[in-house]
Amino acid sequence: MLEVNRPMSGINDFVVKFANVNGTGSASANGLIMKTVFRMGVPVVGKNFFPSNIQGLPTWYEIRVTGEGWSARSGRVDVMVAMNSETYVRDLKEVSPGGYLIHDSSWAHPVLLSREDVTVMGVPLSELCAENFEGARARILMKNIMYAGVIAALFDLDLEVMRSLLTESYARKPALVEANMKAIQLGYDYAKANFQTPLPMRVEPLGRTAGHFVMDGNTAAALGCLYAGATVGAWYPITPSTSLMDAFKSFCMKHRVDPETGQRNFLIIQAEDELAAIGAVIGAAWNGARSFTPTSGPGISLMNEFIGLAYYAEIPTVLFDVQRVGPSTGMPTRTQQCDLLSCAYASHGDTRHVLLFPANPEEAFYLSVQAFDLAERLQTPVFVLLDLDIGMNDWMVPDLKWDDAYRPDRGKVLDAETIQKIEKFHRYLDVDGDGIPWRTVPGTGEKGAYFTRGSGHNRFGAYTEDSVEYQDVVDRLVRKFRTAAALVPKAIIKGDGATAGIVSLGSCDGAVQEALAVLAKQGIRLDYLRVRGFPFGEEVEEFLASHEQLFVVEQNRDAQLKSLLTLETAVEKRKLHSILHYSGLPVSSSFIVDGINRAMSKGEAA
Amino acid sequence: MSIAKPKISRPNLPRNTQGLTRRDYEGGMSTLCAGCGHDSITAAIVQACFELSLPPQSVAKLSGIGCSSKTTAYFVSGAHGFNSVHGRMPAIAAGASAANRSLHYIGVSGDGDSLSIGLGQLGHAIRRNVDMLYLLENNGVYGLTKGQFSASAELGSQSKKGEKNDHEPIDPVLLALSIGATFVARSFSGDKDQLVPLLKAGLMHRGFALIDILSPCVTFNDHEGSTKSYAYVREHLHTPVAADYIETRGEIQVDYQPGEAVTVDMHDGHQVVLKKLDHDYDPTDRARALAYVQEHIARGEHVTGLIYLGEGRRNFHERHQTPEQPLNSLPYDKLCPGSERLGSIIKRYR
User: B10 Cβ partners below 8 Å, 6+ apart?
Assistant: First the structure.
């Protein structure tokens, strides 16, 4: 078990952070190291902290080797690979006492020698590159891949695993495999000759990654869209959601193109803006296709008007909001959970929306499939709230399962045959008492024709300015929202009757799970509720009612989950204590442990 | 507001090949002002759909917000309709067309809806060449908010209150020509003989068909000093070509003298026959069409008729290589790769 301030033990339990300049190929080197650890059977966490820029700015990548299989940041840095002289000062500062710093010693850097509790190791990476490789660009790229060799020697990584990973990546360019391996070997040999290797912190093969793979949440969500049978996607590129549509397109090109005709069983519209993107999604959904748009906070702001239309005209719509730091443009490449309220109540007038909160790529896959079912069952917009941490970081994911018996729930749609038989069709009648009316798809029959409008309408679908008729429809929408509370994924509850608990959501989960274990070791037992959908179900009410003190852990400044709980459940506000993380980096377990300890020492919890 | 129109069917009404009468293509009762140009356009749409024998359910009617956008409720009641948000009908149309390419999409918009808030979306629908008929019912004025100038009002045109418009207009025809529209026409709500064939040709055009229809607002823009009044428009029309849409169910005979008529084959196998009224005009030459319209605008004239027709550009679905079968009716087993493939997909991520 990891203690926040434990001395370095090392084997399969440490954090290495890489400080790079973006656009120098460091992502390949860092990814290679992470994947090597994973292939050696040791659970691993990779977090990328990158700038909103293409080349030349500081970027960091953090790899946590965690034999225990934790999935969050720990909050410490044991080894810093400092490859960016611009950030030396802060990078050195970040190393935990007793840690190591590796740097390019081709030039002297006296600033790096200012800490006595950090072991500084210099490798003349630039010199080695200049001696062994031709061309400026190759030298920059190889310098980064070379430190992968140094790391391999220090952490006892298996070079053969590295080679096979490179062979897979460069299947079509075998020459690149050799060039990269040459650089790795140079780094490896230098470290072996000049340092005592391996370090106390190192990787030992473990066999705990079987049945897992490594994927980011945007790719997993895109896979969910593919499996859900989505045929129309419309989007406007925006960080950090862009890779979701990129992945969807690439999956579709492999799995949705008719091998005989070359025709594509999907259509992706790269819209002129987010307003058009959501409009196209609504048009397609109105017309009976499963359709979706991936976006981020600024896109949600732009889509607000259309979201209200989809809510009021009751059109199934799936939106992925890969949240980033706001307000305004904010920090596009940093993570937050800051759109909970803007999604829950998006658009003017009385509107409330169904939200899903996946915690990781695995859930991103399953909940994106479910989002389409819910949208069509409930005939309303459904928001899948991802964030940059889930969406763009590589996570270790348990193998996904697919039930071939699954069929999409298309909801209450009258088919052509039924339309022929009925006397008269009324779009917004609550025939079944669940608040969900029946709908028809254009082209399926004259008798099913109706007029869709965002203006006031009555239960028959006709325009109205009559107060009673207007209220009749919006009151039914409230009943429909109640129905939704029973259909959204249930909250996950962990615990055994403690008086205090943590309430959290989404990507906080990994850090909360680990914090719970650490706190338990300290003698603090807490129950845990992780909400996975909005509107909140009965189980959320029960958990809130049965605990005296509740720590609400979330990644935004304004305690949006706490606000939502206060507004939408019967919980007493005095019970809720916020632990808020909004730096833009994924929350760490130690942050939560510290926060709860602090709150408890102030007597804020039982 | 839409008020149901009583259906009275008389046995002697002419029927089309669907066995339907013209009345079967009507919609709810119009609630626009008496004499509104838009109602004449609605009547022309009814006539065009009747003459083309379109099954009502094969039509989808889309609109944004404004007086013009209300009219989708007034024709083809057997078709689904969608009155969406201001200026954003083109996005709804693109999505709807993506889901089902087999329907006939009729988008009805106005100068407020299309040339201000919706200018970007109109431009991009043209750029995508979405398969639809797009009607821009153009009266130069915001009717529902009582008489503000729209972006199509001519410089110096006078409002009902006597105010002079201080801005140059955005002309949808010039815009469409310059960004590559494949079917560009202008007409006048008061000229049904010209309008009905244009609507038919536009409906059958494979791609985006824009018809800018001058449609005077009797309440706010029909006075002296307005350049979009009935009187002004009638006096300043200039029609270089007369278009007729011919269904080639049998052998087609072209009666025009060589040199006077141009026949353009359309993708659906039908033809548009263009009778030249102006010897110098060639409606298949985009650059000359653009210059011609500009010259006449300088003279204060509205060029009407089929101004440009080019069937060459790929439409929305051709660009996206979608199958003939609408995406919304593809069976699920064609869409889901299944559990075995999921195994091989994730294998690549180990």
Answer: none
Q: In this structure, how many other beta carbons lie within 10 angstroms of the beta carbon of residue B319? A: 12
Burial of A123 (0-12, 13-18, 19+ CB in 10 A): buried
Helix ranges (H only) for A156-289 are 159-169, 174-194, 217-228, 242-255, 274-286
Cβ atoms of residues B80 and A461 within 8 Å: no
Nearest to B349 among A214, A305, A404 (CB): A214
What are the beta bridge partners of residue A269? A234
Identify which of A275, A280, A452 has the shortest CB distance to residue B94. Answer: A280
- Chain B partners of A213 at a C-beta cutoff of 8 Å? 346-347, 349-350
Cβ neighbours around A284 below 10 Å, total: 33
- Alpha-carbon distance A102 to A115, whole Å? 13
State the pTM of this model: 0.95
Alpha-carbon distance of A396 to B79, in angstroms, equals 50
* A18-57: pLDDT as tens digits: 999 988 888 999 999 999 999 999 999 999 998 888 888 9
Asked if B177 and B126 touch (Cβ cutoff 8 Å), the reply is: no
HSE-CB at A358 with a 13 A cutoff on CA atoms is 31
Chain B: residue whose CA lies nearest to A453: B83
Q: What is the pLDDT of residues A311-345, one digit of tens each?
A: 999 999 999 999 999 999 999 999 999 999 999 99
DSSP β-ladder status, A58-66 and A44-49: antiparallel
Q: Least CA distance to B322: which residue of chain A?
A: A264
Q: Is A215's Cβ below 8 Å from some Cβ in B?
A: yes
Q: Enumerate helices (H) and strands (E) in chain A, giving the number of each.
A: 19, 22
Number of neighbouring beta carbons within 10 Å of residue A336: 28
Using an 8 Å CB-CB cutoff, list chain A residues near B342: 223, 227, 400-402
Q: How many CB atoms lie within 10 A of CB B23?
A: 14
ipTM of the complex: 0.94
Q: How far is it, in rounded angstroms, from Cα B141 to Cα B153?
A: 7
- Mean pLDDT per block of 10 residues along chain A (606 residues) reads 48 96 89 97 95 88 96 94 94 95 92 90 96 89 94 97 95 92 97 95 96 98 98 98 98 97 98 98 98 98 98 98 98 97 98 98 98 98 98 97 98 96 95 97 95 97 97 98 98 94 98 97 97 98 97 98 98 97 97 96 63
Give pLDDT tens digits for B282-333: 888 999 999 999 998 898 888 899 999 987 789 999 999 999 999 999 999 9
Within B72-191, where are the H helices? 89-99, 111-112, 119-128, 172-178
Amino acid letter at A113? L
Q: Which two tokens stand for residue B62?
A: 């889309």
Tell the CATH topology of B22-333: Rossmann fold (3.40.50)
Contact A234, A280 (CB under 8 A): yes
Query: Looking at beta carbons, which residues of chain A come within 8 Å of B129?
Result: none
Other C-beta atoms closer than 10 Å to the C-beta of A23 total 15
Q: Which residue type sits at A424? A: K
Concatenated DSSP letters of B235-283: HTEE-SEEEEEE--SS-----SPTTTEEEEE-TTS-EEEEEESSTT--T
Tell me the C-alpha distance between B2 and A449, whole Å: 15
Q: What's CA A410's distance to the chain center, in Å?
A: 27
**What 3 state SS string does A373-430 have?**
HHHHHHCCEEEEEEEHHHHHCEEEEECCCCCCCCCCCCCCECCHHHHHHCCCCCCCCC
d(CA B324, CA B125): 21
Ordered domains of chain A (ranges, CATH): 13-194 (3.40.920.10), 215-398 (3.40.50.970), 416-487 (no CATH), 492-601 (3.40.50.920)
